[in-house]
Each structure stands twice: as structure tokens, then as C-alpha cells.
Design goal:
It is a single chain. This protein is α+β, with helices and mostly antiparallel strands and about 130 residues long. The protein has one domain. The chain contains 3 helices and 7 strands, in the order ββββααβββα.
Length: about 130
């Protein structure tokens, strides 16, 4: 049997995402779609001088506005978004996921600031339920 010199890159890849899960429970059919949001950095500078000067939340307007107004959350995001690039809040049936970008196996670690960001976002979700 002849072996392919350039095999296709199928199979498991060494990239992972860390997801923070907020359980919304049954909650009498509460609409979890109101928690759809995405945070992107607004940057200034290039290469080693690049820094995050602000963040912009998009998504379900009332929830995104509430997250945009949280000053503590904004300050934490400014520290984390150069590495994470974006933070997403993704509603599903019975729970909401909070996650960042895909990371290679060598760089996979839980960032304490990202854990605090997820905790603040989870607090906003629980308060809205």
C-alpha cells in the first residue's frame, strides 16, 4: 500500500476553549436568547505598542448595554482581550456559555482575570433571570 506523502489534517487537533457555564435551569421557559452577546476590543497602536483602549459589546441590546455600562468588567476586559481577542456569551437550552478564543494545547491555562470576568457576566445573567 502506498502512503500519502501529504496527508490531510483530519482528526483531533491540539486546540481547546475554556467554557464557563451558567445554568439557567427550567425557569418557567425563560428566554435565554436575551443573553446573546459578543465583546470585541478597540485597540490602538501596532505590534508591541498595541493596547486595548475600550471594549464594545454587541448582541441582544438590553443585555449588551448592561455589560457595556459595567466599569469593573470593562477594566478587566482591557487586561485580557489582547490575549483572548474576544469574549462571547452564547445562550443554549438550560444554560449560557461564556468563552474566549481557541488556544493551543501548550498555551492552555485558566486566566484568573478571565475567571473573574465570567463571574461578573454570570452575575448579570442571574440578576436578569
Amino acid at each position: 500500500m502506498k502512503q500519502d506523502a501529504m496527508p490531510l489534517p483530519y482528526g483531533a487537533l491540539d486546540y481547546y476553549q475554556i467554557h464557563y457555564i451558567v445554568s439557567t435551569g427550567d425557569n418557567n421557559g425563560a428566554n435565554t436568547q436575551q443573553f446573546l452577546a459578543r465583546c470585541e476590543p478597540i485597540t490602538k497602536g501596532h505590534f508591541s505598542e498595541k493596547r486595548v483602549v475600550a471594549v464594545k459589546w454587541t448582541g441582544a441590546s438590553a443585555f449588551a448595554d448592561k455589560l457595556q455600562q459595567d466599569e469593573r468588567l470593562t477594566e478587566l476586559l482591557k487586561q485580557v482581550l489582547l490575549h483572548e481577542r474576544e469574549v462571547r456569551v452564547d445562550p443554549l437550552d438550560g444554560h449560557v456559555r461564556i468563552y474566549g478564543r481557541w488556544n493551543h494545547d501548550e498555551n492552555l491555562k485558566a486566566n484568573p482575570a478571565m475567571v473573574e470576568i465570567a463571574d461578573i457576566i454570570a452575575g448579570h445573567i442571574k440578576a436578569a433571570l
